[in-house]
Amino acid sequence: MTSSIIPDENEHLITGWEPDVPADDTLVRQAVLAHASWPVEVARALGRPWRHTDRWAGGWVGDRGPLTNLVMLLQPLDDPAAVTAEIGEMIPAHVPYCLVSPWPTPDLRPQGLVLLGHPPLMVRFPAHHEMPAPHGVEVREVGTAEELAVAEQVLVRGYPMPELEPLTPGSLLAPAILDGLTRVWLGHVDGQPASVAAAFRHTDVTLVEYVAALPNARGRGAGAAVTWAATLAEPDSPVVLMSSDEGRPVYEGMGFIPVERWTAWLRP
């Protein structure tokens, strides 16, 4: 009886991470593919270099800032030297990038990377929620290049990303991104731009990204308001995001569930 369940030695046992496995094989796979496609989408809109291989995907969005350039692994890392060499062909040695793996990795310090930590993957399943309306806060969806430039400034100053200032308009968010699967919301406090969030639709899930609020607007509900707008962009679909430990309680309060921890490395 036992021998009947033992696979043939030549039979391929699916891991769920082969390139030809359907995107919706698991929700985690959908989350990985969404995170992998996001930097490609941003770089493509900017006209910057990007790559999407069987092993990894990422984009060279800018020359400054440790979190400007994201690279996402699509398979467990079994050959660190080869993969980092491939990434190095796209992103030159003087440009930093963040490498994210959904799996534990070998020590990548020999490849010149520094361990950043193990951020949690958060998931929110479809559930009705009334859009919050904090006093003095107004949320508007970005629809023009001018509005996108304002949202970009809020993102850089609110995240914050001081290494990107002074910011050249269009360094992170190009108007072409609004022609694709990305939507952006700008929050205003007492009429002034104060917060930003984006929603990227991929593999039937919504990825929430680029959440930021200016320091003088914190505590007013502006950050939560735009985050809710992005979260409810597709109310019938699961929503995924990669959180920090500091931000995790906020997302849990919105109904997000921590699913697993990923691994983040930085090439400074």
From TrEMBL:
Residue stretches making up the N-acetyltransferase domain: 137-268
Origin superkingdom: Bacteria
InterPro entries membership: Acyl_CoA_acyltransferase, GNAT_dom
UniProt protein name: GNAT family N-acetyltransferase
PROSITE patterns: GNAT (PS51186)
SUPFAM superfamilies: Acyl-CoA N-acyltransferases (Nat)
